[in-house]
C-alpha cells in the first residue's frame, strides 16, 4: 500500500487507541477473558502501538533534519575520494514528501517525542495504576523505551557532522550483492570514516521489511563476493550457529513480510501486531544478551588492549544497548580489530529483505568464537545456514582505522551489521560474544566532537529543547513507581540505583544531568538487564500475537478466498447453466416453431392429397359406367387394376382396385442375356469385403410376459397427457414401403400419428415418381383410434423399426435412429400390443417383445396342434412375429413349396409321392445338388467370410418381384429395380413347373414360395397385357403356364391350398418350420441340415451403427439388401408336431376334424303357436354370450328369443337320446310358448304396405339383444330391444322406403357394419356400436347418426345386399341390373355382370374366402371372385328363398319353396348332399357358430334343426373313411 494509505491507516488505529486510553475508564478484563487474551493484554497492545507511532514520528523528524542539513552543507573532499570508484545513482523522491502535511503529527521536529506521544505514554502507564502489577510492568517497559531514545538523541546532538558526511554518500550506493541462499547473505560495505550511531535504534524499532518503500529510499551498497579488489583477500571465519535460524515467515524473499493487518507491504508499521514485529527486534537483543551473559560468560573474548573497565565488566552498559539498538540486524559477524563503519542505516535496511529472520532467533544463544585477524584486513562472516562465502573482498579503504583517527573507544559490536556508527580504534575495541552483540544493542561511549559551525545553539540548549517534554515523564514514572523501580533497578553490586537518581532529580531539573545519569555504566547495565526484560516481554508478546494473528488472518483469508472461489465457481456455473438454459429454451422454441411450421405444411400436403383423392372419387362416381353421367362409351377401353393393400384376417391381400396410374408399360424393354453376370461374378462381388462389425449372437434375455408391467407406460401416459403443446414426440424416421425408403419426420400427438416426408432429401428426389404413386403414407396421418397392433421390426438386420397395423387393414412401417427411439414411440402410442389375434395381452411390452418371446407367449402353436387354425394361418402367424412384412420386399413372408408333381393331368392328394419332403431345405431335395452344396461347405477356403452352403437366399426382394411381376404395383417396382426393363424371357416366371425344376437343378436357385401362391390366382394372369418377350423355345411369355391338373389359376390356388392343408403337410410342417424359423436355422443343426446361408442374411451378424465410414456402411446395406434376410429365430428346440386328426375326434367344436356320422339328419322341429311364416333366423350361439340363442322373426313381425343349449359334445355319446328334452339344442322362448308376454315380442309399428316382408328386412345384432327392422313408411329403419320389445332408435337417411338390411361379421365388442338398401337406389353404410348399442358412435348426440358412406350406381330399388368387413366390401343387387361391388369407403369397384339370363338378383352371400354367390330369379346361381371374375354358374328348378356359405367359403347351402336343403361345393356348384324334404317351404336359414347345426325357418311357422358336418364332404374324409 502507498505511504499515504499506511499513514492514514496508522492514524485511524491510533484514534482507536486514544479512545481506549484517554476516553474510557472501562475495565477490559471481561473482553480479554472473552477473547482468550491474557490479563492486561489490551493495554500492552496499546503501548506497543503508542511506541510504534512515537518511533515513526522520530523518524520523520530525523528525515526533516537531514533534509535541512542537506541543503546547507557540502560534501567533504575526503568523502569524495572514497566515492571515486563507486558509480552514483540518483535518489528517488522520499516518501515523506508524499505524505500530506495535514496527516503529519509532527508539531516540533526538534523534540525527541511529540506531545501527543508523551501524553499517550503517560496515559498508558497511569491509566490502570490501581492494577499495580500491570502498571509496574508498563512503567518498566516505558522507562526502557524512553531511556534508549534519550541516550540516542543525546548522541545525535553530539555528532551532527556525521550526518553531513553521510548525506553525501547517499547518491552513490549502487553496489549490491545478494547470495540467493535464503538464510545467508554477505554484505560488504566500504568503510566511511563516519562514526555516528545515527538513529540506529529507531531503525531497529521499525522492522526492515516495512521499508520496501522506506523513508530512506536508496540502493544498498553490497559488494559482489567475486569482485577482486586491489587488496589481498581476507580469510573469512565461519561462524558456526548452534542452531539454524528458523523460517517463520512466508513472503517474497522471506523478508518482505506482509503487513499483519493488510497482507501488503507497509511503508510504516501499521498496526498493533505489526508494531509487535517491529519492536520484537529490540526484545530479541535484550533477551539474547541476557542469555549469553548468563550462559557463556567465559566465551566473551577480550582483545589485548581493551579498556579495563569494560573488558572486566560482565554486563553491558546502556550505551552498548543503545548502540546495538542502532545497529542493523544484517546477519554478519564482524570480526577484526575494529568494526567497519556502516555508512548509513538505510543501507542496512535496504539490504534487509534478502536476510530472512534476522531477528527471529531472539530466544537462542548464538555463540560465535572470534579470532583476531591481522590488522588492516577485514573479516566478514556470514551467519546463516553454514554457507558462508569463501573469500570476501576487502574494504575499498585499506586502512579504515587510520582514517578515523586513533581515539580509543570502548565498543560492543553487533553481528548482523557492519556498524557505521562506531568511532573506531585499532586496538581498543572490546568485542562481546557475537550472538550477544548481534541481539543486544550496544551503546558506545560518546566521543567529544567539534560543534557544527552552522548551528548556533549550544548542545545543552539542544538537549534541553529536545528532551524537555520527555524528561518530566521519565521523572514522573521514577517518582510514582519509586518503590517498585528501586527494587528492580539494582547496580552491579546489588545497590539501589534509583535512590541516587531520585536525589539527582530532586536536586536538579536539568535534562542533561538526567541524560548523563542514564549514560553511566551502572544505569546502562541495570536498565538493560532489568527494564530491558520487561520490554522484551512486551515485544515477544506482540510477536506471538503477530504470528497468531497472521496465521488467523491467513487462515481467514484462505477461507475467504476458498468461499469466494467457490461462489465465483458457483456464479460461473450458474451463469453457464443460465446461458445453457436460455440456449436450450431458444432451441426448444426454434424446434417448436419448426415443428409447428412442419405440422402446418404437412397438414397442407395431406389436405392436398385428400382433396385430390376426393376429387378423383367424385369423378369416378359420376363418370363411371354406372354413374349419373356415365355411359358405356365413357368407360375406358382398358381398365387397369392394382392389388390393394387391404389385408383380411389371415393377412391375405386379395382385393384389386382401380389403378389410376395403370399402363401396359409399352416402353419397357427386355433385358438381354449378356446383362446377367455369371454365378461366379455374383459370388465374387458378394465376397468383396467382410465387415469387422460382426457382432456375436447374444443369448436372448427372456421377458416374462405373463405379468402386467405396464405401470410404467401408464405413468408415462399421465406425463404425456400433461405435456403442453400438440406434439408429444417428434423424431426423424424412415417410411419403409416396398422399394421405397423415405426419410422424414414422425410426429405423435395425443390422438394421432403424422409422417411428413422430407421432399428436399436428395435420395427422395431420385425416387421414380411412378413408384411414389404407389407409396402410401408419405404425407400420412393416422388416428390412434385406428391403431390395432404395433410390432417391433427389423430393418437391414437392425432392431430399429416398427410396423403399425390399422383398422383399415393396412399397415405402415417406420425405421428409427435407434432402439431407444423405438421404445419412446411405442410408449407414445396407444396400448394395443400386437392385436387380439394371438392370445397375447394388449400391452406395450408385448409390442417391444422379441419374436422369440412372442412365440413362447402366444397360444397359436397349441391352437394349431389342436387343429383350431389352419396350416396357412399358422405359417402366416410365424411369418408375422418373425418380422416378415409386406412393407419390406427383403423380408417378405415365406411359404414352402408343398407339391412336387406339376406334370400329371390329375393330382391325387392322397399320394405321398406328390408331396415335397418338408424336413429338408429346398436346396437339399435333389441328392446330387445336395452333394455339391455339402462339398462347397466342407472345402471352404475364404478366410474373410464364414462358410455357407448357398450363395443365394430362399427369400429376396428380387424373388418376390419375379413372382409378382404381372400385377401392379409390383410390375412398376420390378421395372424400377431393373432399369426400366423386364427380365430376359427365359428368366421370367413363366411356368410353375419350370420354376419348380429350376429350384431343384440350378445351383443358384433355392427360392421358396410366397403366400400369394395359396390365395391369389390373379398373379398368374397377365391381365394388363405386358410384353414379356419370347423364350428360347419360341413360347411367348404371357400368363403363367399352370400344371395340367389346374384348368385355371383359381384351381391351381385352390388345389395348392388344399395340399398345404392336407394331412401329409400337417404331419411334417413342423420340420420345415425348424429349418426356416427354428433350431435348424443356424448353428451345427443348420450345417447338418444343409441349411447355411451367407452370414449377412442372419440377424445379429452385423451392427451397422459401429460402421462409421459412410461408404462402407452403404456397401454393407446394399449387400444386406441383395442377400435377402433370414427370419428371426423363433425357437431353439424342435417344434412340436401337429396332433393327428383322429386324436381330436371326440373334442367338441373343431371345424377341421372328422367324426363318425351316425347321427340323423334332423335333430329337432320346433313349432311356434303362430302359423306366420318364419322369415328370419339368426343363430348367435357362441357360448360366451349372455344369452346364446336362435332369434326368429315371423312375417307378422313377432320375434322369439329361443335359448340355445350347446349339446354338440354329447351328441353321439353313449346313452344319448332325443327324449331328453334338455339335450335338445333349442328351447322355445317361454314368452311365446306360454303366450304370456306376446306384447314384449310383437313389433307393432306400421310397415309400408308395398313392402314384401322377407329375410332381408331384419338384422339381429351379434349379442341377440337388438333387432333392426326396415320397411317403415317414414323411410327409416328402427332398432328394438329383444328383451322388452321397445323401440330404442330410429335411423333416417334414405329418400325412400328402406327395402333391405345386412350386417357384417362382428368383432370384439360387437361392433359391426350395417348396410341399408332403399328404393331410392342407394345404399348407406352405418356403423353399429356394440358398446353403446346404437347406430353411430356417440350416444349423447341428439343429431341423427350420419352414414359412413353412400353407395351409388344402381338404377333400381335395391333388393339384396351383403357386407363383408374382413374384405371391406359391400355387394348389392337391385331389382334389375348387375350386382355392384363397393368398398366400405364408398368407392364403386366393379359390377358383377352375369350372363344375359342373370339380370334380376334376389339373394347374395359373400364369404371371407372371397366367394360371392348370387342367386338370380328363376333358379340361376353365379359364383364370382371378389375381383369380379365369374367362376361358376348353375341353374336349378327350385325357387330358392335362402342361401348360406360355410365359414371357410367352400360349401353352399340352399333352401327354397320345395322345402329341400341342399349342399353344394361352392367353387364349381358340385352337389354334395340333399337333406330329406320338409312339409313346408324354407324361408330363412342360419348356421350355429360351430358350423354343426343348420337351423331353417319354415313357411309353416316352425323351425327345423339339421345336423350338418361339412367335413364329411372334405376330400380327405371321403378318401379315408
pLDDT under 50 segments (min length 5)? Answer: 74-95, 167-454, 678-724, 1146-1157, 1209-1221
Biggest sheet descriptor: 7 strands, antiparallel
Instruction: Please bin the fraction of helical residues.
Output: 25-40%
Shape: elongated
What fraction strand? 15-25%
Query: Structural class of the helices, strands and pairings?
Result: alpha+beta
Spatially, the strands of the biggest sheet line up as 11-10-9-8-14-13-12
How far apart the termini lie comes to 121 Å
Number of strands: 44
Q: Give average pLDDT, whole number.
A: 76
Rg for CA atoms: 61 Å
Counting DSSP H or I runs of 4 or more residues, the number of helices is 40
Amino acid at each position: 500500500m502507498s505511504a499515504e494509505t499506511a499513514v492514514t491507516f496508522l492514524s485511524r488505529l491510533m484514534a482507536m487507541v486514544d479512545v481506549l486510553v484517554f476516553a474510557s475508564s472501562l475495565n477490559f478484563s471481561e473482553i480479554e477473558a472473552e477473547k482468550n487474551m491474557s490479563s492486561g493484554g489490551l493495554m500492552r497492545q496499546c503501548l506497543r502501538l503508542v511506541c510504534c507511532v512515537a518511533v515513526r514520528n522520530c523518524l520523520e523528524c530525523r528525515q526533516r533534519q537531514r533534509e535541512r542539513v542537506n541543503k546547507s552543507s557540502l560534501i567533504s573532499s575526503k568523502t569524495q575520494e572514497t566515492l571515486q570508484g563507486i558509480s552514483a545513482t540518483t535518489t528517488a523522491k522520499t516518501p515523506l514528501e508524499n505524505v500530506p502535511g495535514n496527516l503529519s503529527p509532527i508539531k516540533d521536529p526538534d523534540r525527541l517525542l511529540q506531545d501527543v506521544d508523551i501524553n499517550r505514554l503517560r496515559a498508558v502507564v497511569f491509566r490502570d495504576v490501581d492494577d499495580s502489577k500491570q502498571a509496574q510492568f508498563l512503567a518498566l517497559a516505558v522507562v526502557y523505551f524512553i531511556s534508549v531514545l534519550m541516550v540516542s538523541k543525546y548522541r545525535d546532538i553530539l555528532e551532527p557532522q556525521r550526518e553531513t558526511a553521510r548525506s553525501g554518500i547517499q547518491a552513490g550506493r549502487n553496489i549490491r550483492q545478494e547470495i540467493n541462499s535464503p538464510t545467508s547473505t554477505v554484505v560488504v560495505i566500504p568503510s566511511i570514516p563516519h562514526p555516528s550511531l545515527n538513529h540506529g535504534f529507531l531503525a531497529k524499532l521499525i522492522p526492515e521489511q516495512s521499508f520496501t518503500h522506506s523513508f530512506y529510499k536508496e540502493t544498498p551498497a553490497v559488494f559482489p563476493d567475486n569482485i577482486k579488489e586491489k587488496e589481498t583477500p581476507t580469510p573469512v571465519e565461519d561462524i558456526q550457529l548452534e542452531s539454524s535460524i528458523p523460517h517463520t515467515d512466508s513472503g517474497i524473499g522471506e523478508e518482505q513480510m506482509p503487513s499483519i493487518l493488510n497482507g501488503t507491504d507497509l511503508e510504516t508499521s501499521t498496526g498493533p501486531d505489526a508494531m509487535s514485529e517491529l519492536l520484537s527486534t529490540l526484545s530479541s537483543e535484550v533477551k539474547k544478551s541476557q542469555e549469553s551473559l548468563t550462559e557463556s560468560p567465559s566465551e566473551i573474548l577480550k582483545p589485548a588492549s581493551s579498556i579495563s573497565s569494560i573488558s572486566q565488566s560482565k554486563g553491558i552498559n546502556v550505551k552498548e544497548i543503545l548502540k546495538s539498538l542502532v545497529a542493523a540486524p544484517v546477519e554478519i559477524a564482524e570480526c577484526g580489530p575494529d568494526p567497519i563503519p556502516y555508512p548509513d542505516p538505510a543501507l542496512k535496511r535496504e539490504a534487509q529483505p534478502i536476510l530472512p529472520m534476522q531477528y527471529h532467533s531472539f530466544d537462542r544463544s548464538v555463540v560465535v568464537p572470534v579470532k583476531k585477524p591481522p590488522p588492516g584486513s577485514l573479516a566478514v562472516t556470514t551467519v546463516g545456514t553454514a554457507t558462508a562465502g569463501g573469500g570476501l573482498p576487502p574494504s575499498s579503504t585499506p586502512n579504515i582505522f587510520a582514517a578515523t583517527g586513533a581515539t580509543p573507544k570502548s565498543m560492543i559490536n553487533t553481528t548482523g551489521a557492519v556498524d557505521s556508527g562506531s568511532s573506531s580504534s585499532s586496538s581498543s575495541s572490546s568485542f562481546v560474544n557475537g550472538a550477544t552483540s548481534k541481539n543486544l544493542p550496544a551503546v558506545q561511549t560518546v566521543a567529544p566532537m567539534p560543534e557544527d559551525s552552522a548551528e548556533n545553539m549550544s548542545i545543552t540548549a539542544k538537549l534541553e529543547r529536545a528532551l524537555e517534554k520527555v524528561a518530566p515523564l521519565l521523572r514522573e514514572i521514577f517518582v510514582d513507581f519509586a518503590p517498585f523501580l528501586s527494587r528492580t533497578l539494582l547496580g552491579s553490586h546489588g545497590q539501589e540505583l534509583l535512590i541516587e537518581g531520585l536525589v539527582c532529580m530532586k536536586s536538579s531539573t536539568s535534562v542533561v544531568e538526567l541524560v548523563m545519569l542514564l549514560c553511566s555504566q551502572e544505569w546502562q547495565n541495570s536498565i538493560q538487564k532489568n527494564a530491558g526484560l520487561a520490554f522484551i516481554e512486551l515485544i515477544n508478546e506482540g510477536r506471538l500475537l503477530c504470528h497468531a494473528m497472521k496465521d488467523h488472518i491467513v487462515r481467514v483469508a484462505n477461507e475467504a478466498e476458498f468461499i469466494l472461489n467457490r461462489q465465483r465457481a458457483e456464479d460461473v456455473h450458474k451463469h453457464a447453466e443460465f446461458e445453457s438454459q436460455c440456449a436450450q429454451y431458444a432451441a426448444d422454441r426454434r424446434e417448436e416453431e419448426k415443428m409447428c411450421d412442419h405440422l402446418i405444411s404437412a397438414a397442407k400436403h395431406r389436405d392436398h392429397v385428400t382433396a385430390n383423392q376426393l376429387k378423383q372419387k367424385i369423378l369416378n362416381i359420376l363418370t363411371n359406367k354406372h354413374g349419373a353421367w356415365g355411359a358405356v362409351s365413357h368407360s375406358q377401353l382398358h381398365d387397369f387394376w392394382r392389388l390393394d393393400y387391404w389385408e383380411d384376417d389371415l393377412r391375405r391381400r386379395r382385393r384389386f382396385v382401380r389403378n389410376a396410374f395403370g399402363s401396359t408399360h409399352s416402353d419397357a424393354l427386355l433385358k438381354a442375356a449378356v446383362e446377367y453376370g455369371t454365378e461366379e461374378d455374383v459370388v465374387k462381388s458378394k465376397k468383396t469385403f467382410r465387415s469387422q462389425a460382426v457382432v456375436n449372437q447374444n443369448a436372448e434375455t427372456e421377458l416374462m410376459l405373463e405379468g402386467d408391467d405396464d405401470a410404467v407406460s401408464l405413468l408415462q401416459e399421465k406425463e404425456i397427457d400433461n405435456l403442453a403443446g400438440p406434439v408429444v414426440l417428434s423424431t426423424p424416421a424412415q417410411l419403409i414401403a416396398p422399394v421405397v425408403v423415405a426419410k422424414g419426420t414422425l410426429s405423435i400427438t395425443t390422438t394421432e400419428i403424422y409422417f411428413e416426408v422430407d421432399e428436399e432429401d436428395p435420395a427422395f428426389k431420385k425416387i421414380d415418381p411412378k413408384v411414389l404413386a404407389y407409396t402410401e403414407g408419405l404425407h400420412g396421418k393416422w388416428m390412434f383410434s385406428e391403431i390395432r397392433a404395433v410390432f417391433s421390426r427389423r430393418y437391414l438386420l437392425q432392431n430399429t423399426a416398427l410396423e403399425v397395423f390399422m383398422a383399415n387393414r393396412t399397415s405402415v412401417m417406420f425405421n428409427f435412429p435407434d432402439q431407444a427411439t423405438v421404445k419412446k414411440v411405442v410408449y407414445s402410442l396407444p396400448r394395443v400390443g400386437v392385436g387380439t389375434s394371438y392370445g397375447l395381452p394388449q400391452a406395450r411390452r408385448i409390442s417391444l417383445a422379441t419374436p422369440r418371446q412372442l412365440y413362447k407367449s402366444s397360444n397359436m402353436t397349441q391352437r394349431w396342434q389342436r387343429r383350431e387354425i389352419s396350416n396357412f394361418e399358422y405359417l402366416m402367424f410365424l411369418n408375422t412375429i418373425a418380422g416378415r412384412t409386406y412393407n419390406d420386399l427383403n423380408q417378405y413372408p415365406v411359404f414352402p413349396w408343398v407339391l412336387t408333381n406339376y406334370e400329371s393331368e390329375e393330382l391325387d392328394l392322397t399320394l405321398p409321392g406328390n408331396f415335397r419332403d418338408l424336413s429338408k431345405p429346398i436346396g437339399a431335395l435333389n441328392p446330387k445338388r445336395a452333394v455339391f452344396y455339402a462339398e462347397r461347405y466342407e472345402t471352404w477356403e475364404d478366410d474373410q467370410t464364414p462358410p455357407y452352403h448357398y450363395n443365394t437366399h430362399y427369400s429376396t426382394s428380387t424373388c418376390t418381384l419375379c413372382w409378382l411381376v404381372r400385377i401392379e404395383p409390383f410390375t412398376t417396382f420390378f421395372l424400377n429395380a431393373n432399369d426400366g426393363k423386364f427380365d430376359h424371357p427365359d428368366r421370367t416366371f413363366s411356368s410353375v413347373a419350370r420354376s419348380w425344376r429350376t429350384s431343384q437343378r440350378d445351383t443358384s436357385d433355392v427360392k421358396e414360395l410366397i403366400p400369394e401362391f395359396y390365395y391369389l390366382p390373379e398373379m398368374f394372369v397377365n391381365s394388363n397385357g405386358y410384353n414379356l418377350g419370347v423364350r428360347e423355345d419360341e413360347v411367348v411369355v404371357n400368363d403363367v403356364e399352370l400344371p395340367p391338373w389346374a384348368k385355371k389359376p383359381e384351381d391351381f390356388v385352390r388345389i395348392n391350398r388344399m395340399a398345404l392343408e392336407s394331412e401329409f403337410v400337417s404331419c411334417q410342417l413342423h420340420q420345415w418350420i425348424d429349418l426356416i424359423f427354428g433350431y435348424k436355422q443356424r448353428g451345427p443343426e443348420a450345417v447338418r441340415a444343409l441349411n447355411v446361408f451367407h452370414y449377412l442374411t442372419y440377424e445379429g451378424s452385423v451392427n451397422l451403427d459401429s460402421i462409421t465410414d459412410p461408404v462402407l456402411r452403404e456397401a454393407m446395406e446394399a449387400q444386406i439388401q441383395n442377400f435377402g434376410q433370414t427370419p428371426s429365430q423363433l425357437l431353439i428346440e424342435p417344434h412340436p408336431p401337429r396332433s393327428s386328426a383322429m386324436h381330436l375326434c371326440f373334442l367338441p367344436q373343431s371345424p377341421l376334424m372328422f367324426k363318425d356320422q351316425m347321427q340323423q339328419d334332423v335333430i329337432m322341429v320346433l313349432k311356434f303357436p303362430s302359423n306366420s311364416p318364419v322369415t328370419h333366423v339368426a343363430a348367435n350361439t357362441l357360448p360366451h354370450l349372455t344369452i346364446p340363442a336362435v332369434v326368429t322373426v315371423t312375417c307378422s313381425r313377432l320375434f322369439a328369443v329361443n335359448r340355445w343349449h350347446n349339446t354338440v359334445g354329447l351328441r353321439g355319446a353313449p346313452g344319448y337320446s332325443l327324449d331328453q328334452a334338455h339335450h335338445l339344442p333349442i328351447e322355445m322362448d317361454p314368452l311365446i310358448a306360454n303366450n304370456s308376454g306376446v306384447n314384449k315380442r310383437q313389433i307393432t309399428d306400421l310397415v309400408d304396405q308395398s313392402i314384401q316382408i322377407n329375410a332381408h328386412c331384419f338384422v339381429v345384432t351379434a349379442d341377440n339383444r337388438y333387432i333392426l327392422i326396415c320397411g317403415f313408411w317414414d323411410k327409416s329403419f328402427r332398432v328394438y330391444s329383444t328383451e322388452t320389445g321397445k323401440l330404442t332408435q330410429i335411423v333416417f337417411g334414405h329418400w325412400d322406403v328402406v327395402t333391405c338390411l345386412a350386417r357384417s361379421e362382428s368383432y370384439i365388442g360387437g361392433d359391426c357394419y350395417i348396410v341399408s338398401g332403399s328404393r331410392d337406389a342407394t345404399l348407406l353404410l352405418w356403423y353399429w356400436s356394440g358398446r353403446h348399442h346404437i347406430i353411430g358412435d356417440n350416444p349423447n348426440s341428439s343429431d341423427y347418426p350420419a352414414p359412413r358412406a353412400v353407395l351409388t350406381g344402381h338404377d333400381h330399388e335395391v333388393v339384396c345386399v351383403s357386407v363383408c368387413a374382413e374384405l371391406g366390401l359391400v355387394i348389392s343387387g337391385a331389382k334389375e341390373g348387375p350386382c355392384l361391388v363397393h368398398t366400405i369407403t364408398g368407392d364403386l369397384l366393379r359390377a358383377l355382370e352375369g350372363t344375359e339370363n342373370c339380370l334380376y338378383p334376389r339373394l347374395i352371400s359373400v364369404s371371407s374366402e372371397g366367394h360371392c354367390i348370387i342367386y338370380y330369379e328363376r333358379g340361376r346361381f353365379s359364383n364370382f371372385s371378389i375381383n369380379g371374375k365369374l367362376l361358376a354358374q348353375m341353374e336349378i328348378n327350385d325357387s330358392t328363398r335362402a342361401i348360406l356359405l360355410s365359414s371357410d367359403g367352400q360349401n353352399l347351402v340352399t333352401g327354397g319353396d320345395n322345402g329341400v336343403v341342399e349342399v353344394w361345393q361352392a367353387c364349381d356348384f358340385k352337389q354334395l348332399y340333399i337333406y330329406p324334404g320338409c312339409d313346408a317351404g324354407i324361408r330363412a336359414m342360419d348356421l350355429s357358430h360351430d358350423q354343426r347345426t343348420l337351423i331353417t325357418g319354415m313357411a309353416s311357422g316352425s323351425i327345423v334343426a339339421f345336423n350338418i358336418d361339412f367335413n364329411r364332404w372334405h376330400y380327405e374324409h371321403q378318401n379315408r373313411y
